[in-house]
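Retro notes, item 3 of 5
We never archived the inputs for the flavin mononucleotide complex last cycle. Fixing that now. Sequence and ligand:
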Amino acid sequence: MDLGGLATANPVWVGSSELTMTREGLLACVDAGAGAVVAKSVNESAAARRQLDIAAYAFVGDDRRVRAPGAAKRGDGLLNRSGLAQAELDDWLDILAGAAEHGAARGCPVIGSITLGDAAAAARIGRAMSGVVPAVELNVGAPHGREARAVRRLTEADAVHDAVRTVRAAVGVPLFVKLPGQASDVVALARAARTAGADAVGLVGRYPGFLPDLDGGAVLSSWGAWGSPGCLPMSLYWVSKTRLALGPDVPLIGTNGARTAADVLRFLASGASAVEVVTALWIEGPGVLAELVAGVEAYLSGRDDFVGSALAGARDYAGIPPNPSPAWLPYLASSGRN
Ligand SMILES: Cc1cc2nc3c(=O)[nH]c(=O)nc-3n(C[C@H](O)[C@H](O)[C@H](O)COP(=O)(O)O)c2cc1C
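Structure as it came back at the time:
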């Protein structure tokens, strides 16, 4: 399949995280059957790199309690702090080049990633990456943006447009722009990214989060980035709205909340052409990719035009006919309050 000028093996991609921060990690994801692999983000800031020294990760069960180490389950949420890759740029480019070559031989593109700090610096890094990877992803929606000033979460269309235009001018390969989910109008951000030259738009980044530990204090002793299967419908809200507003010619890359093949399919039905998965791999390892890819391919076999198919049945409230009897009546009855 082609997505924004990039040929990929299948729609199940590995998103950027510490799992794709080393040559070994990148190769393991390629070899496990990903459609594409996004490397861990870098930027120009020493502070963003130092941030990795205080990284912490808490897997949280349905009861909002933190799991014991090693006991995480696929459906858990993840609250974490993290920073950016600590390699010097030249060393990082060497790692990317080797992984990209390995991926190319197996039909799996390895994509470079930049989390926005300063736009001019991102442009310089993007230009350098263009020489070694077949595509670059620019994340302008870092959920740690308020706590870690060295990474930014842009929530206004003008700011997205300016940053993307600056980086676009320097990047000589397809440029994908990953947006935050927490902004008043993510569709406007997607339109701004596209107008400024993004070849595809990533929707949506994880959310800022906070979780008291009822034994005292707060989980991680700080705020963090939060993602869980419960975030899936929130991600799909913006994927579907963006697909409707921008149309099928703008490729969308879904992320945030896919843990199973069925979740990947829900992203596709909402309008995404590929899905970046991360937390499921943290919990079960890259081997989970084989299950996701097989499940998605089996379901899609013989089905055309699946991307965006759920939108045919979705209407604005004004287009929905009134119920013959109140829909809330059975709920009231079962609660014993009528
Ligand atoms: C520990 C961790 C580190 C991450 N680091 C980055 C990063 O450096 N750059 C980026 O664009 N996204 C980063 N992400 C976001 C993921 O790429 C992905 O979009 C997100 O985790 C949602 O997918 P999921 O629900 O499958 O986890 C990170 C996510 C996690 C959990």
